[in-house]
Amino acid sequence: RPVLPLVLGLSLGCSLSLLRASWSHGGGEEQCPGAAGRPGAPAGGPHLDAAEGRPGPGHEDFRPRIVPYYRDPDKPYKKVLRTRYIQTELGFHERLFVAVLTSRATLNTLAVAVNKTVAHHFPRLLYFSGLRSAKVPHGMVLVAHGDERPIWLMYQTIHYIHQHFGSDYDWFYIMQDDTYAQAEQVKALVTHLSINQDVYLGRAEEFIGGDEQARYCHGGFGYVLSRSLLLRLQPHLDSCRNEILSVRPDEWLGRCIIDFLGIACVSQLQGQHYHTYELAKNVEPEKEEDEEFHTALAVYPVSDVTLMYRLHKHFSRIQLERAYQEIQDLQMQIRNLTSLTPAGEAGLTWPVGINAPFLPKSRFEVISWDYFTEQHLFSCPDGSPKCELSGASKADVSEIIEWALEELNGRYQPLLRFSKRQLLNGYRRFDPTRGMEYTLDLLLEAVTQKGHSHVLTKRVSLVRPLSKVEIIPMPYVTEATRVQLVLPLTVQDLDFVANFLDMFAMNTLDTHDNALLTLLFVYRPYDAQQVGQVDVFAGVKAMVGELEKRYAEVKIPWISVKTEVPSQVKLMDIVSKKHPVDTLFFLASVWTEINMEFLNRCRMNTISNWQVFFPVHFQEFNPALVYRGEQTASSGTDFLRDGHFDRHSFAEACFYNSDYMTARTKLAADILDQDEVLESMEVFDVFLHYSGLHLFRAVEPGLVQKYALRSCNPRLSEELYHRCLLSNLEGLASRSHLAMALFEQEQANST
């Protein structure tokens, strides 16, 4: 009896399903609705084009069609070239392109003000002028048409936009340099408009003495054109230039669009309003209370540069206040909803809306705090226990203290007003899940409304959260660039050369990778004198000869150098002079295991005149300490057990010869033939101090080195020698392995 309702429900459900299936397949001769004109096609359905498979007029359908793949067996197979980005293959366009109409008279004044206020908010912005100025301001892209006539300038601008950007952007915003536009509001406007409609949106104005129904968009307040409208307008531009007479360029463009496309300007479309505001003379933006002014997307006319900056400051303050209000509203909603969660009020994190602090799973994952005062930092980059607080760290501490006082005064005023006496203790740490955290012990003086003062100590906690992640635009690079490997060799490296050459042959020569190798033999003075009788590198040269016999098309040149101190910069100077300026160098070490995966990343991460790449290789631990007689783990084991990323080594580097020569020229002018300075420098230091390039240093799991005890040359600088020793010591084993080795040794000694 208890399961009787379940049985009845299942029976009823199965019966209804079978009955519905019989109704669906009752008409066995019914054809698919796509076969238009065939017998059995359903009456009243949408008429589809049988040849194209598309809906008929009035029945627009955006559903995807599956196109079956067919390859003619009689035709030879041709490799399909895929685009680099899926966005290009799918035909996506960028959102917004902005054109600013300027003149030679206002290029260095109003146009510069536009560039400094709103240009960085738009993804792409160009300036169009009739005549080119003698000098274009820095950071501005100017297109000069060679004629100052307004109608000609508008005609050439529309033609240029269509020719160069018509297939790349969905929306085009045209404004004048005496217009202030709220960039974020304009971007928000176009994101809410449909791209499959012809759009001519702006401040609609009536033609003088014309039809009341026909309106054009006033050029002073800017206007938005859709890509579809621009494509339809392009064939008629020449006719508009020859047939339409007008004094104002915005009226000419509006008449052209109306006469040939039948589209008039509108101020409201698809529920979106294009709000504008016309400024009066001698206006004070800070005192303007009109609601239309605060909601305006475009303000016109802006008579001078100072007014442009004042408008930008005023609207930026309004946007900032709105953002703070939205944050407060969201925090209140989070507080209200937290009580309904399983964790209750205890699940509420501080600050509200920011990720909770990182919870370490072991003592090795604990994020340490750095102690600081207003004058010193007690966790220094060079490892020293105490260093002077300067630069960005000093500015960071000063800003945090000022912000803490501002928050305290904002919370307790007008009852109390705080002023700083001294920073007693300061702690900070970087939490990758939320940002930089601070804890400050402040000695404050509190003053009441009656003037009584009291000194007290207050501890405050602050968080500087991680802001919005932005994609940095980078130049386009390919994976077809030839890589020139440079391998310096000393007498101490002879035992590892055979393994390096074997890996190079297997991973580059056998796979026909576009990579070449140059060997750099570094002779000591004594060995160089005896090279006629005993050549210490004779074995290496024999290995190179065998490789050249095995691979007939491969030549591996070598360069011999005599020096007591094998400075990396001096060696690179010799190699640089023997190669073209467009050569991509990979400076390797004898313990490096070359593979195609890393070489491709070397090509992709190194950009001429833009970026150099210094990978952090993975160093395997000493197997005698890690495994202690056990079987060596395979290559697929956990990296955390087998080794570590050696952050003290800068031996590997990828860079272009032209970039190195430019930085080296600046270094030579600075040191003035003081060659002893080069002995204390590496290639990394040359790029760091004498180039404006991006230095990309990242861990590289594809660059693995077997354990080997490096020989540290005491003739090098103290810093380089110290880094070499640290690399050897940290490369022995992990702390747990070292502790286990010490424990076993103590047990053996006690017995």
From TrEMBL:
It comes from Urocolius indicus (Red-faced mousebird). Residues 1-21 form the signal peptide. Residues 33-46 have a biased composition (Low complexity). Its main location: Golgi. Its EC number is 2.4.1.-. GO terms for molecular function: glucuronosyl-N-acetylgalactosaminyl-proteoglycan 4-beta-N-acetylgalactosaminyltransferase activity; N-acetylgalactosaminyl-proteoglycan 3-beta-glucuronosyltransferase activity. Belongs to the chondroitin N-acetylgalactosaminyltransferase family. This is Hexosyltransferase. It comes from the Eukaryota. Residues 29-64 are annotated as: Disordered. GO terms for cellular component: Golgi cisterna membrane.
